[in-house]
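A brief tutorial aside. Many learners find it easier to grasp structure tokens once they have seen a single protein encoded end to end. The record that follows does exactly this for Nucleotidyltransferase. Read the sequence first, then the structure, and try to relate runs of similar tokens to stretches of the chain.
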Amino acid sequence: MSRAHVDHRAIARFAEERVNLPRDKADEYRAQARRLREKLETYLDEHPNFTLRRMMLSGSLAKGTALRTLNDIDVAVYISGSDAPHDVKQLLEYLAERLRKAFPNFSPDQVKPQTYSVTVSFKGTGLDVDVVPVLYAGDSAWRGNLVSQEDGSFLETSIPLHLEFIRKRKRAQETHFAQVARLLKFWARRMKQEREGFRFKSFMVELILAHLTDQGQDLSDYPDAMQAFFTYIARSNLRQRIVFTDHYPVSDVGKCFDVVQIFDPINPTNNVAKLYTAEQADAIVDAALDAGDAIDAALSAPTKELTVRYWQKVLGSTFQG
């Protein structure tokens, strides 16, 4: 494939300038989450029987796959105690009340229950922290029941194990795993803006990329890596079951008739794509086919102008080569 007009370096440069969350912003946001955690830890030291046991940074900022467009931070709070409600609405009110106790300097309007989380707003930076409750019973690996942000159901999970799952793939392909994940999430975000009803959540993007990494896909050349991702979706029709064996054997995954099957690497009963319909899966396949065709055309285009035009079908009009 030709790299005469747009090569790996051009895609990497675009990622730094347009896709990635700048390092200083990432450090600022992590520091903000850390200050919140430290306030909670100070309160826990003074009130050892307090039911909020631990606060952990989660989501794309914790995994190192955040985009420049990041406007909130995901944090999980582990809640113990027999009096913690198991009704989602009541649990969120319970969490909000205790966060207000732990952070007495926050005004009531800075701590607000949402549908499936509690938002803590910082007046100085204008950044929101979405706090998701995890019901915790003392497991040493910090497994607990987290409130799903899709449908409000309780899902067994472990934030530390999830973060280690991603770190393992990042160690296998240093720099490149996280960067390709960000490029693909950037593409998926564009598709959501351009195609009505398009759905492709970031966790699914990361898990498909992790699957390809585990299969030996080299991610060090970004055009090739992105093309491999789109080719996998097209060839599998997004109907190939994906299971990881980091924490359980394949046999632990039971019968499943969901259209798309991408299983949580920590919980074999949780298909993270269970809510996707055939129509939504086909829309992802169609978008991947279009992106793959555009990259193929870009890599064989005779002029830079034409090459850039094809890449813009994948990365948007701000890409100038």
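Self-check: Residues 21-157 form a domain with the Beta Polymerase; domain 2 fold (CATH 3.30.460.90). If you spotted this yourself, you are ready for the next section.
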